[in-house]
Design goal:
mainly alpha, 11 helices
């Protein structure tokens, strides 16, 4: 039985329809205020000269900030109530675009916490673990795309935000474990990228090849967009499978290339020493 939105509305409002899509902006003042505070804190960190962060890195952070903001306030928010594929696209923009850009922008340097809020060294080491990042991201991705938890995000605004915040935080951990400047080693970055590509691809494939629709929220709402709920689910699976797999395989290839160059440089250095 499809979900009835007559008694309550999800956080993003009523399911979008083609005629009114571009008028459905989410102008939640609390959400916008939160983003403004993050931007102000980042700017304050740069003004204080804390980070030694280049202009290019700052541009990366601002681009990631803008992508995250638009993902949550644009009509994509209302479209994600109507279509599972739009919800997956929203998640992929946050995970594959906004998160790595903000990590490249070195937000952890610019957004300085007061001393009392600094985590202990052991906690920092644990959070920086590639294995932990892999596990946390996989658990968040699979949990929030399971039918039960997914349904709860339509019935509870706190649950909706728990989904987005946990996915985004897990993605930040993941990219910190993969990007060369932050990863503990090239081998660790390679492992994280390959494992993530496999697990995300597997979830995307399961959704793509499922024989029945799993998400009751979209049984009726997808029809306004010329899709059956199964078509919509399969499209969502493809969005997760192809772009997600491509990005993480690309990161793995870059890591392999970096490892190869490092080994080549070591061999060349050894030959010069022998001579």
């Amino acid at each position: 039985m499809a979900t009835d939105f007559s008694s309550y509305l999800p956080y993003c409002g009523a399911p979008a329809i083609p005629v009114t899509l571009w008028s459905n902006w989410n102008l939640d003042p609390w959400l916008i205020a939160g983003f403004v505070l993050v931007a102000a804190a980042y700017w304050r960190g740069g003004a204080a000269g804390r980070g030694e962060v280049s202009r290019r890195e700052q541009a990366c952070f601002h681009a990631g900030w803008a992508v995250a903001l638009l993902t949550l306030i644009s009509p994509l928010c209302a479209l994600s109530v109507a279509l599972f594929s739009a919800r997956v696209a929203q998640h992929m923009l946050l995970v594959l675009v906004a998160a790595p850009l903000m990590v490249l922008g070195r937000g952890q340097v610019m957004l300085q916490l007061p001393r009392w809020a600094h985590p202990p060294a052991a906690a920092k080491k644990l959070v920086g673990s590639g294995r932990l990042a892999c596990a946390v991201f996989a658990m968040a991705l699979w949990f929030w795309h399971a039918p039960g938890p997914y349904s709860q995000t339509f019935e509870s605004t706190p649950t909706y935000w728990a989904m987005h915040i946990s996915l985004f935080a897990a993605a930040i951990m993941l990219w910190r474990a993969m990007l060369p400047r932050h990863a503990r080693s090239l081998g660790a970055a390679l492992m994280v990228a390959l494992v993530t590509a496999v697990q995300m691809g597997l979830l995307g494939a399961l959704l793509t090849f499922a024989r029945r629709p799993l998400y009751v929220e979209h049984w009726n709402t997808a029809m306004a967009w010329g899709l059956t709920s199964l078509d919509d689910q399969q499209l969502g699976g493809l969005i997760m499978w192809v772009p997600g797999g491509t990005v993480f395989i690309g990161v793995a290839v870059i890591a392999i290339g970096a490892v190869w160059r490092t080994l080549g440089a070591s061999d060349t250095s050894g030959l010069r020493t022998v001579r």
